[in-house]
């Protein structure tokens, strides 16, 4: 696989390329997957997200990646690291980890497996002192995974985003320090 960045037991994680917009739109841009992320995106929004991610990888050496099953080659997740950039967040500039998994692969442990590799990447080659993850209280699966990864709820980092539906506010954050990860 070209542009391989990370590997885990069942997954390979690769850089996103210019020709991946249709794959993202078809596999991940569904009402169920995007329910807590502002809803289904328009094609131009996916295109802009990919362009921004590719530029970030070129500039900073990290961004979001596509995770593929080794056994099938199927793309199963979009996950990685970016900067907290929402100007309403009290911690703009922190390393933010995140993930979405295609609906037909939910509850198979792919997000946990991929994020363990991403966190190792963050605290290893990237050199992040800590990472955060953002979600909403109604996204139980997301914050339960954060807790499973050893992340700690940080209520002082919560913020209201008027661009998100009321059900997805406030945005809540969890964090994990490098020392916590290494001593787990």
Describe this structure in words.
The protein has a domain at 4-131: Aminopeptidase (3-Layer(aba) Sandwich), CATH 3.40.630. 29% of the residues lie in helices and 26% in strands. The chain is built from 5 helices and 8 strands, in the order ββααβββαβαββα. It has helices spanning 21-27, 43-60, 110-123, 140-148, 178-182, and strands at 4-7, 11-15, 64-69, 75-83, 95-101, 130-136, 152-153, 171-177. The chain has an 8-stranded mixed beta sheet, sandwiched between helices. The protein is globular, with a radius of gyration of 15 Å.
Proportion of residues in helical segments: 25-40%
Main sheet attributes: strand count, strand direction, barrel closure: 8 strands, mixed
CATH topology heading of the domain at 4-131: Aminopeptidase
Strand order of the largest sheet: 1-2-3-4-5-6-8-7
Percentage of residues in DSSP E strands: 25-35%
N-end to C-end Cα span: 32 Å
CATH architecture of the domain at 4-131: 3-Layer(aba) Sandwich
Full CATH superfamily name of the domain at 4-131: Gcn5-related N-acetyltransferase (GNAT)
Shape verdict: globular
Query: Mind telling me the C-alpha Rg?
Result: 15 Å
The top-level CATH class of the domain at 4-131 is Alpha Beta
Q: Tally the helices: what do you get?
A: 5
Extended strand count:
8
Q: What is the average of the pLDDT values?
A: 93
**How do the helices and strands follow one another from N- to C-terminus?**
EEHHEEEHEHEEH
Q: Unreliable stretches, pLDDT < 50, 5 or more residues?
A: none
Q: Tell me the structural class.
A: alpha+beta
